[in-house]
């Protein structure tokens, strides 16, 4: 058996490179201003172009495939309610959800934040938990600052009260809203009290929607219980201008109209606050 020796041997082990000529730094290559004292700064290779992209930019390109837009300070906060509104039960992971325990504290913070003067609510939701949706709608309606909602894609089921809870509402020309009776899924106890509870919950939705829009209770109930549209229990599907014509939504418009409207409302809100302070 051959034995290996680990004793130092000049030129073989350990390896020591031969001394090379001293290289003086090129005076024409100057360091970037403000980065002279930056630790562990890697010196770029000679004749190599340095792109200068930050780590955040590269991560944004990798994650979403787009360059990030420059951040600007705005007095308008954008609140998105998308997918299915999740209530007390956790939905499957493949469902895109809006969790009410995330939205409610955010609304409280927006009410208190002095730098936020208006809230833009963007909806593209299929509905979801009735009580969670009503809680979000009640909080939006009770905010003292200007609020504008816009339905893009869809604002179905319990998304209807959330849309009308804002002080002014828009709907895109191709967006749709489904008005249908309250439904339960899962185990249902077949007793009269269950149906009474459903009626009371339905009355809460009807009352809130009619109080915060121009649609009458009679018309809203007619749309809710209409038969013959797609299926017997689907209710009514309103698309774009139809939601405005019945008085559910204030106007047809896009994101530009919504931003312009909330800016006008902010100016009016500021003027009212000045008048109150003067008195």
Q: Briefly, what is this?
A:
The protein has helices at residues 55-64, 100-112, 130-142, 159-165, 192-211, 217-224, 241-245, 255-278, and strands at residues 76-86, 97-99, 118-128, 147-155, 168-171, 176-179, 236-239, 251-252. By secondary structure, it is α/β, with parallel strands linked by helices. Helix 3 packs parallel to helix 4.
| Record field, number of beta strands | 8
Radius of gyration of CA atoms, rounded to a whole number:
30 Å
What's the architecture of the domain at 76-88 and 95-271, going by CATH? Alpha-Beta Complex
The biggest beta sheet reads: 6 strands, parallel
Mean pLDDT: 81
**Pairing-aware structural class of the strands and helices?**
alpha/beta
Shape: globular
Write the CATH fold name of the domain at 76-88 and 95-271. Answer: 2-enoyl-CoA Hydratase, Chain A, domain 1
Please write the string of helix (H) and strand (E) elements.
Answer: HEEHEHEHEEHHEHEH
Q: Which CATH C-level class of the domain at 76-88 and 95-271 is it?
A: Alpha Beta
Strand adjacency order, main sheet:
2-1-3-4-5-8
Which percent bin holds the helix content?
25-40%
Q: CATH H-level name of the domain at 76-88 and 95-271... which superfamily?
A: 2-enoyl-CoA Hydratase, Chain A, domain 1
Assembly of the depicted chains: single chain
Cα distance spanning the termini:
103 Å
Low-confidence stretches: none
Number of helices: 8
Strand percentage lies at: 15-25%
């Amino acid at each position: 058996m051959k034995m290996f020796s680990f004793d130092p041997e000049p030129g073989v082990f350990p390896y020591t490179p031969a001394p090379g000529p001293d290289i003086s730094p090129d005076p024409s290559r100057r360091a970037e201003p403000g980065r002279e004292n930056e630790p562990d700064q890697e010196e770029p290779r000679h004749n190599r172009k340095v792109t200068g992209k930050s780590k955040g930019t590269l991560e944004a390109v990798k994650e979403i495939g787009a360059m990030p837009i420059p951040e600007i300070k705005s007095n308008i906060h954008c609140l998105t309610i998308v997918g299915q509104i999740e209530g007390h039960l956790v939905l499957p992971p493949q469902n895109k959800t809006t969790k009410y325990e995330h939205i409610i504290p955010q609304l409280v913070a927006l009410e208190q934040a002095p730098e936020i003067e208006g809230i833009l609510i963007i909806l593209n939701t299929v509905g979801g938990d009735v009580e969670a949706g009503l809680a979000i709608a009640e909080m939006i309606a009770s905010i003292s600052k200007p609020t504008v909602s816009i339905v893009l894609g869809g604002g179905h089921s319990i998304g209807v009260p959330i849309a009308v809870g804002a002080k002014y509402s828009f709907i895109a020309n191709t967006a749709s809203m489904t008005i249908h009776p309250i439904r339960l899924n899962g185990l249902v106890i077949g007793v009269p009290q269950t149906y009474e509870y459903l009626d009371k919950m339905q009355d809460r939705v009807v009352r809130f929607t009619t109080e915060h829009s121009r649609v009458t209770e009679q018309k809203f109930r007619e749309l809710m219980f209409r038969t013959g549209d797609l299926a017997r229990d689907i209710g009514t599907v309103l698309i774009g201008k139809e939601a405005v014509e019945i008085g559910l939504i204030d106007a047809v418009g896009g994101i530009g109209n919504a931003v312009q409207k909330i800016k006008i409302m902010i100016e009016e809100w500021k003027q009212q606050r000045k008048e109150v302070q003067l008195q």
